[in-house]
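Practice problem 4.
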């Protein structure tokens, strides 16, 4: 449900921009606030789930997500839409923080990879149906209809979660780490504000430096707090394990690559190729379709082949796809772009399940909630940074070539400027992919446990 929503928003963003006549910097907050809220609160919800039990957190998240979707559908202004997305994201974070931990407790250790592969398949179904369903609905009605879809789903699944999920043991009964939670959230908000407004004419250099410096200081305070507490929201000792820490870093970089592509390519298909929403959805369908096909195989292979090899191979393939996308022109056929997107999705599928299994298999039972929340945090932090850096690089190039214009002012005579900005942003994403590939390989050799027959 959460991936269905996010994938539909990817192709709806150009139409939301047109409806509210907003800039790229403002419109990107429809996605940014969603990812920022999830990233800032995931560790807290994982921490709380270890105390209260995941059965109490997961269904409430479903319910909040459904009600937040209703508020998004009825938003009269961009500001209210962003506020409603914040509420929707709180529910999504509650689901994401507890989902992987529930899977770990449901499957024996030797089958964890294939269990996560099946979840990857479910995630890809949401991603796959979003672009085509969203494109079809955008041609028939407004982007608001996209939010109405998840309202009944949230209510139904909240009820089913309460009925089906078993009671689970509580691994922690101490006080909540409120100070760590607040410092983490504040640091992320400040850093994202600095990134998203780096090209804004309304923000001075001193204001940007002050905001960014305050965000960096917040991160330093968070680390200091977490190293002193006996039950922090983030156990810093986990990062003493090189395999664990490099797997988390490579996950962040992997999703930076993916979401830079997801943000920018629909604008190319809309502005330069002039495709209708339904065809934009079909082209973007290439990424989740390849994930759907490859995820079960990647999950099964991760029980036999080392995560180092599979994850590194996956990121290499995905980075190659981004490098190819960074060469597209206004005359590039949609079929060629589709093939390059398939490479990106195939690589992501090869990376995700083995990397997730590698992270969860290396933690003890009382750290499962924290590790699952950290894994989801890494994923959403990568999405957030991918959107922020892609929008920042694109806007910087586009403004520089067009003497200060924004993407909302695009006209056919700006095609060369658009391509210059697109290529620069995608090359930045490809660089993140290369760094992620190196981090994945440097984790060292791992020997998977073969399933019992």
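Answer key:
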């Amino acid at each position: 449900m959460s991936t269905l929503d996010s994938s539909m928003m990817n192709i709806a963003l150009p139409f939301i921009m047109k409806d509210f006549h907003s800039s790229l910097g403002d419109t990107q907050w429809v996605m940014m606030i969603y990812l920022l809220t999830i990233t800032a609160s995931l560790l807290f919800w994982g921490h709380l789930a270890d105390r209260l039990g995941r059965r109490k957190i997961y269904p409430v998240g479903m319910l909040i997500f459904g009600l937040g979707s209703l508020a998004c559908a009825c938003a009269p202004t961009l500001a209210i839409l962003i506020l409603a997305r914040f509420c929707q994201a709180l529910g999504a974070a509650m689901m994401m923080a507890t989902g992987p931990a529930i899977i770990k407790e449901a499957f024996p250790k030797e089958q964890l990879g294939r269990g996560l592969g099946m979840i990857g398949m479910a995630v890809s179904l949401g991603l796959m149906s979003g672009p085509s369903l969203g494109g079809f609905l955008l041609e028939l009605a407004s982007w608001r209809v996209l939010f109405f879809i998840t309202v009944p789903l949230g209510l139904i699944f909240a009820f089913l979660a309460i009925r089906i999920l078993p009671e689970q043991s509580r691994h922690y009964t101490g006080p909540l780490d409120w100070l760590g939670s607040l410092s983490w959230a504040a640091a992320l908000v400040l850093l994202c504000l600095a990134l998203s407004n780096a090209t804004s004419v309304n923000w001075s250099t001193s204001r940007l430096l002050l905001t960014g410096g305050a965000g960096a200081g917040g991160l330093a305070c968070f680390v200091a707090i977490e190293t002193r507490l006996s039950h922090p929201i983030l156990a810093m000792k986990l990062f003493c394990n090189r395999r664990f820490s490099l797997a988390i870093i490579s996950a962040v970089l992997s999703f930076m690559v993916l979401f830079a592509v997801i943000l920018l390519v629909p604008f190319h298909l809309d502005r330069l190729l002039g495709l209708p929403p339904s065809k934009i959805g079909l082209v973007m369908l290439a990424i989740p379709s390849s994930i759907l096909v490859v995820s079960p195989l990647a999950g099964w292979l991760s029980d036999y082949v080392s995560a180092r090899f599979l994850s590194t191979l996956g990121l290499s393939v995905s980075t190659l796809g981004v490098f190819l996308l960074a060469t597209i022109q206004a005359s590039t056929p949609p079929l060629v772009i589709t093939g390059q997107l398939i490479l990106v999705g195939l690589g992501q599928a090869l990376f995700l399940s083995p990397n997730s299994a590698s992270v969860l298999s290396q933690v003890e039972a009382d750290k499962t909630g924290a590790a699952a929340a950290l894994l989801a945090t890494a994923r959403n932090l990568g999405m957030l940074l991918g959107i922020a850096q892609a929008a920042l690089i694109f806007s910087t190039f586009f403004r520089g070539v067009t003497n200060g214009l924004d993407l909302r002012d695009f006209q056919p005579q700006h095609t060369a400027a658009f391509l210059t900005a697109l290529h620069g942003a995608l090359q930045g994403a490809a660089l993140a992919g290369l760094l992620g590939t190196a981090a994945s390989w440097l984790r060292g050799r791992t020997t998977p446990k073969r399933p019992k027959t």
